[in-house]
Amino acid sequence: xxxxxxxxxxxxxxxxxxxxxxxxxxxxxxxxxxxxxxxxxxxxxxxxxxxxxxxxxxxxxxxxx
Length: 65
Description:
There is one protein chain. With 65 residues, the chain is of the alpha+beta class. It has one domain: CATH 2.40.50. The protein is built from one helix and five strands. A hairpin with a 3-residue loop joins strand 3 and strand 4.
């Protein structure tokens, strides 16, 4: 799970395994495997870093890109 911030300032906790794509438009748009889209304040790089950290914590090894 990763913590992100919606444009209105509301914090949310997202299951990182549900992320399908990240796009900068210039806002960061997250497309989920459910078809839902979220717009967050964090940059694509910040979201990617949080996902990689989450995967490292849960799988116990560095993520290869």
